[in-house]
Amino acid sequence: MAQVIMDKRDVEFVLHEQLEVEKLAKHERFAEFTKKTVDLIIAEARNLAVKEMLPVLRIADEEGCKLENGTVRVPESFHRIYELFKEGEWISLCDDPKWGGQGMPTSVSMAVKNYFHGANFPFTLAILLSHGAGKLVENFGTEKQKNLFLKKMYTGEWSGTMLLTEPQAGSDVGALTATAVKNADGTYSITGNKIFISSGEHDLVENIIHPVLARLEGAPPGTSGISLFLVPKIWVNDDGSLGEFNDVVCTGIEEKMGIHGSPTCSLTLGGKGKCRGTLLGEENKGMRAMFVMMNEARLDVGMQGLGCSSASFQNSLNYARERVQSRHLTASGKDAPPVPIIQHPDVRRMLLSMKTCTEASRSILYYIGYCEDMIHISSDPAEKARYQGLIDLLIPIAKGYVTDRAFEVCSMGIQVYGGYGYTKEYPQEQYLRDCKITHIYEGTNGIQAMDLLGRKLGLNKGQPFRDLLAEIRQTIATAKNISGLEGLAGKMETAAAELEKTAAFIGKMAASEKAMTAYSHAYAFMDVTGDAVMAWMLLWRATVAGKKLQAGAKGKDAVFYEGQIAGARFYINTVLPITRGKMDVINAADSTVVDIAEDAFGGK
Amino acid sequence: MAQVIMDKRDVEFVLHEQLEVEKLAKHERFAEFTKKTVDLIIAEARNLAVKEMLPVLRIADEEGCKLENGTVRVPESFHRIYELFKEGEWISLCDDPKWGGQGMPTSVSMAVKNYFHGANFPFTLAILLSHGAGKLVENFGTEKQKNLFLKKMYTGEWSGTMLLTEPQAGSDVGALTATAVKNADGTYSITGNKIFISSGEHDLVENIIHPVLARLEGAPPGTSGISLFLVPKIWVNDDGSLGEFNDVVCTGIEEKMGIHGSPTCSLTLGGKGKCRGTLLGEENKGMRAMFVMMNEARLDVGMQGLGCSSASFQNSLNYARERVQSRHLTASGKDAPPVPIIQHPDVRRMLLSMKTCTEASRSILYYIGYCEDMIHISSDPAEKARYQGLIDLLIPIAKGYVTDRAFEVCSMGIQVYGGYGYTKEYPQEQYLRDCKITHIYEGTNGIQAMDLLGRKLGLNKGQPFRDLLAEIRQTIATAKNISGLEGLAGKMETAAAELEKTAAFIGKMAASEKAMTAYSHAYAFMDVTGDAVMAWMLLWRATVAGKKLQAGAKGKDAVFYEGQIAGARFYINTVLPITRGKMDVINAADSTVVDIAEDAFGGK
């Protein structure tokens, strides 16, 4: 039977053949996560995704969220799924079991999240945020804060959020004006208005814990004067019992293009002067704390994009195999029968684009999870640092680049369906609408491009970027020894060298008086880096597949491996030449974007 | 004050400075369309668009259409606008005044439509279809049919549709099964089910006239057995009075991603055996008749895309000038004030991409209208044929390529707004949702790419393509003589030569045993041809601007012209190198898309 959400075989391929996650089980931390256990986890996640989450995707989109008397009602069906998530302990996949986590490898959790997001991203979004908020408590909380909040957050009894954005402080978090005043009892009185708060208020749980960025009286301006506070919706007494309503009022929810099942709230804190919080971490170091959570949050957004594109691709593939329309291009005679549209060249082009894009993105995201795991099991500080550097470098790609590609896949996912794709009878249009938010929150994709060029490229004097190139070159070296992959390896080698040169060029320009011009090409630089990383992942996949074929893989396996090699060939031969064009553009450093007079944009 | 929908100055520039449409008034047919009259028409269209159509864009999206007891109710506000359209005679802009048309140049009508689509594409869509249906009657109808229907359709008293698609016959129109049986009185009894019929049923008018594609008993299979019939919703008696309900029943309307104000209907014809029609044109020549209308319909879809992108860009530009966020990249010191986001390099990059994309697309579409006008006023058959060839060649670009770019512009239009762009508080998300349909109907963009490669490139032994290159080279020659444009002209010359070579290569491959591979690159070929045409239009604009600057243009005009030159520079320097990469891909003719085994796509 045709699969939904994504290709089971491909998930297994990445986990077991590309990343070989069962090797992680050799280490104490992950000892129980043998191949058998991992497969069981994935099978259960798929089961939950396919049987419970996917069937309510559309109805929740229609139903949306409703604000009534300060209470937000999420789609009815989400209550049932939420209970299943709590029962199955799906909320804190990788965290310390001491606090209710599952302790699984991050790489494995990526596959779980891939299914959940593909099945129902608006629902899953709420879960992620709870986890992220919990992680802040785990990392920066006092023992008291942890005891009061953490387990309840990680097990889903309570949920969590992130309160950063204010109407005048979006990308510029440092412009926020929410204030905190210390009280005699050590708590802080919080006042402010926050917007765009995902799951800021809802009816799935009895209490919501808000990490809030605010400014202490007399704190310096900008980001260095921001502190982080833990502000529960309902006050939590020292014995863990619930106290009074804590004056966190939902004043509105956004009408949005997509993710209708996820309430995006405006919250007023301390409107009646009765909102209290406790300091999380140190005074004026709130931004630093938030940054620690940034990688996880941005990786999750990349996964949201991949969830949408995975499912959109799988649907299109199934549809293209079933939908019969028009005769074969090379058929002779008017009586030739119509064929399934997967036989038409332009449909195949779309499907192969979608396949390579989702598969390469999958490898990138799972690989980042794998790097996280390696940090945990490695005892060598240098190796830990190397993996952390790779993660830091790849995060803007995982968030900015992967979601851009995911959106394109979702758009093609509509095209394959033709007119039907535009209707709500099929899920394709929702995947596109939902996917669009991934370009925006947790730092717009433009911000990701600036992060890559401005922070990550030069990190530790460029070591992570050199490490990335070394990883790519290791795959190239392997590929050169596999019959049939030599040519692709050679092309990838050229691309890596060109990327290295381009990175050096734009990095230097960014630090020069031509910084404005450099940053006007930051997006292009994210694009070409992403393209190269995608090509690397596909070549890596092809080397694994090539070895298996050489070893005599047969039947379905052989077909799958041939598909991997075809994917690498398609991408390296039809995408990388365009990447080279983009690198030529960067290296030519045209400054028109900077030079053009503001009025010359027109429209006044 | 900031303009909305689009830049008035740019519209005037294309009409009066690039295309010099006032020269058309030297010819009898367009004698009354002097510059003054043209400006008056545009001003009135803008007025209607800004004051009446735009304010109800969002509310109509929310309201949508409702099917109740077989009757479709369109958004309430559309009734008022429809009356204004009838009163102002905005429905048949270019047609013979004898039948209620305005007789204006098509080039001028493009500007009018640009405003209407930018202000309210879901509403304007209904008007276009009425016009297209009328055009079929004008071109293929008998005198009796014209007298009974045409004036009422062109003046909006009745509306019209197009009934092609059936559930199993989408892109493959030839697979349709609706049938027609000749009656003794010369009418035909029609039976069939049609889907995806825009404005197939609605409450704006008392009668709807459906041109219907159906098969006569015993007709050959495929497209050569299809005839065209005129089927009114309510029978029209020979004296013009309305007779009985003609058994055309709306059985459902689609829930869609966008264009909610436009009802997309499923219609059952002759469910009770009482649906009659009259033959329009000749038996079995229905497809040929439809093809005659195809160019206009596809050009209109391109204009729908441009309407969305024009408005999205203009909104983003206005927003970027007002929204203050983050300090300037080169500001020193933490106390530097935040600046309007138009000063940030990545925002500028998006705005300049959006500007060049909408402006070049505008020039393409208006230019196609201009070619239409030249056919009308030319007395030289060779010149007429040349313009017709250019139109035929450019139509797939106008529909397929322009709408692809428009969608990208609309997506950036959300990005510029950040989180706000995703909310329904601003129109940006609707423009993206509405725009997506333009990739699908009137032949998907994949079909456009096949049309360009399979029909248009080799049309008349390639003469139109050579004519296009000649036009481009004429602009290059002009640009070479303008100080400051020599370098851009040289780059454009190289691009034109590469396009010529690529076209020859893929054209030959399409006619060879490698046709499947050629068609798997058809989309890329549409892309590169479109890129080159865009660059040509921007260079053409720059030559006009350069001459005006040389002649001493000052003040606001000079700023506008500098903007034109910057646009050409930006596009030629930052897009054409990528186009070259795409051409390299085509010329390498990778066949992986064709070669990969169907099962190797995975997911089974």
Structural class of chain A: alpha+beta
Provide the spatial order of strands within the biggest beta sheet of chain A: 4-5-12-7-6
Q: Helix tally of chain A? A: 19
Largest interface: A-B, 112 and 112 residues
- Distance N terminus to C terminus of chain A? 58 Å
Q: From the alpha-carbon coordinates, what is the Rg of chain A to the nearest angstrom? A: 25 Å
Low-confidence stretches of chain A: none
Oligomeric state of the chains in view: homodimer
Strand residues, percent of chain A: 5-15%
Number of strands of chain A: 14
What share of the residues of chain A lie within helices? 55-70%
What is the residue-mean pLDDT of chain A, rounded to a whole number? 97
Characterize the overall form of chain A: globular
Sheet of most strands of chain A? 5 strands, mixed, barrel
Give the topology.
Two copies of one chain form a homodimer.
Chain A: H1 8-18, H2 35-53, H3 57-63, E1 66-68, E2 71-73, H4 76-88, H5 106-140, H6 143-154, E3 159-160, E4 179-182, E5 188-198, E6 208-216, E7 226-232, E8 234-236, E9 242-245, E10 248-253, E11 264-269, E12 276-279, H7 286-322, E13 324-327, E14 338-340, H8 345-377, H9 381-417, H10 419-422, H11 428-436, H12 445-456, H13 463-480, H14 486-510, H15 515-520, H16 522-550, H17 555-574, H18 576-588, H19 592-595
Parallel strand pairs in A: 3-6, 4-6
Antiparallel strand pairs in A: 1-2, 4-5, 5-11, 5-12, 6-7, 7-12, 8-9, 10-11, 13-14
Helix pairs in contact in A: 1-8, 2-5, 5-6, 5-7, 5-8, 7-8, 7-9, 7-11, 8-9, 8-16, 8-17, 9-11, 9-12, 9-13, 9-16, 12-16, 13-14, 13-16, 14-16, 14-18, 16-17, 16-18
